[in-house]
Design goal:
15% strand; alpha+beta; 10-stranded mixed beta sheet; flat
Length: 857
Amino acid sequence: MKKRIEKTKASLSTYLAVTIGITFTVVAVIVVMLVNHTMRQQAVHEAQEKARLILDRNLATHTYFSQNLKPVLFDLTDPYRPEEYFEPAWMSSTYAVREIDKYFRSLEPADYYYKECAVNARSPENEADEYERAFLEELNENPQLVRHLAERVWDGRHYLVVLRRGEVMEKSCLRCHDTPERAPAGLVDRYGPTRSFGRREGDVLSAISMRIPLDIPYARADRFSWQLSLVLLAILLILFACQHLIHRRMVLAPLNRIRGTANRIAQREEHLGEEVAPSPGRELYELTNAFNSMSKKLRHNMDHLEEIVHDRTRELAKSNQQLAVAKERAEVANHAKSEFLANMSHELRTPLNAILGFTRVMDRSRAIPSGEKENLAIIRRSGENLLHLINDVLDMSKIEAGRTVLSEKDFDLYRVLDDVESMFCLKAEEKGLQLIFDCDAGVPQHIRTDESKLRQVLVNLLGNAIKFTKEGGVSCRLSVDSCRLTVDSCRLTVDSCRLTVDGGRSSLASDNRQRTTDDEQPSTGNRQPETVNRQPSTVNRQLTIHFEVEDTGEGIASDELDSLFDAFVQTETGQKSQEGTGLGLAISRKFVQMMGGDITVESEVGRGTVFRFGIRADAAEGAGTGTAAPERRVIALEPGQPRYRILVADDRESNRLLLMRLLAPLGFELREAENGKEAVEIWEEWQPHLICMDMRMPVMDGYEATKRIKASTKGQATAVIAVTASVFEAERAVVLSAGCNDFVRKPFRDSEIFDMMRKHLGVRYVYDEPAREPGTEEQDRIPLTADALTALPAELRAELEQAIRSLDPTRVSDLTERIRGQNAALADALDISMDNFEYERILALLQESRKLEEENE
């Protein structure tokens, strides 16, 4: 035991010594480096100052010679000097500056480099080297450049290099630098007929190059750094010795006293209560006081153990009481959260109701040009995307608040898969991806579970897969544990169904027989069994359907998989895309768990990701689960009906205006109210047949107004339709209990309002032609290809290419209308590409069409 204690003491002392040594060494190294850096910077600064003095001296000489001395000498010698005469000592300022600089160096030897350099210089002594040539080229390319300053190494020596713009060729200098014929004969005889000729006015003729050596001051700085390091090392050794002495006296001795007392207490309980003498130093003083207090407390507790047990029992009862209060507060907070969700639902969905509603109203107007209707469609799709994001946040909050429930019903699983496939087919085609839906033979067509939640899970997983996949493809595979339905000794067999979309081209096959070819129209995806024996009842209906969504995208790092399903958490790839809320996977997992399953994920970076989940479902009868009939547009009321009076009560003017504009063209009598009190007053005076009542309004809300209207006999004859932005299904029961006849959630569809009027008033409508089946409009479109563009005249294609390159939308629109007169389908394909900003793709196709036309010729 004693040896172990001695080892602990030595380890603690060593630890402190090493810590101090490392800290001091780091500080010393930093100090030495800073001193060395400062001395080097000072050397560079002195070199810059020396370069400035030399440069100023030579420039002053150059300026005086060129502007004062040389003109006077030329004026004096003009009458006597022949044109062929040339003397560099007074006719070349560069020569004079170089010779004067040599004279200065002879008076005071200096180790520096100075040259007025040029490319193809007149004197070989001024010829620029490779480094100086690069600077001269940069001077001619960049007129703003004046000088260049850097540290470089030549022949193992450090220099401060200063390069500065020199002379610029002036018109008066061309006599000696234009051609050898114009130059003085003496100049040509001295320097030859090739050097420094062929210059142009404005060219940078020369640059001033200086190199100041830095080896001596750098060596001085390094020597001083070594000396400083030795001094700091000596200080470190002294510090170690002092630390060791102080540590033994001030730290280890007090700790030994505490250790000895603790050992005695541990060996015999009689020593409980013993105290240790206080030690110097605040920390050790507090430590000894704490030890003494603990010793006395243990002695006291040992003597009063029964009393302590009784006190702890009372504390436990008090804690239970506090837990009950905390539980009550949590329930209050949960209720407040639900109230907040209700308010947020109303505040967010109400303006979206106006946005989406007015786009539908404008779309019904025949006065809107066809081109603007495409803009309306873009606004509507953007609003629906925003609604989806809001629904994600609200769904997550409802899940956390426990307000989300399953809404099970019978539906066509194949139709859901077709809808999802249609939703992502175009995105897959645009990215050049292969989209595959694969159903095992045992998967039934009709099941019973929550269709909306299953659809949202598939949309979230497939949307992420396509978004993060750049090449390859995405597949969705379905299988079932057991899908054999026994019906009165008859077997119901659903044939294998496989739907494949490759680059936007789809095919549907059953029993390995291809139903459509690449040249035929894409399949609608209605998965009908080859042989079905329908019976009125089933025996075994329970099954588990497994889904697997796989992509060949970027993959997910292993350290991100644990938090993948957390709310508001995105992977590194998702953050780079700057899209989404980070709620899709969290909501999907909650929904799958509610449907009796769970989601798992496998991923490898660079190889792709696989999401798997299973849900519990019941096999359902096919009746009533087929594809819904296409929605028809109401255009008028049937003749011979009463003039219905409709009251619109809403505190938002935009919502009132939306319903007014929706109903006014059909011939309804309409009035509006801003709050519940005003609605009650108008009802008493006007007696409307139906009231569209918003439930959240100032002064008097819709609940109170409905209760007052329904309290009288004549109010029972008035149909009250609640129009609310609430997202809770439980809200429907509250609304109906207030007296409302029915319930419509914002944002609503036009057909929902018309259906409510038909249901509660018996209104009969005149309908427009049925809406086209989903996908048929796409079938009528032709793909935008180079072959299709070759059908256009070459001049028209050239004008279109020019308009796109000049970013002239008006010109592009005019040209598209001209194309529409010749080929409407091609014009529609161009419009779609323009709306998606595929300008580069259109330009590439135009160029390809030109090549095809040339090859055909």
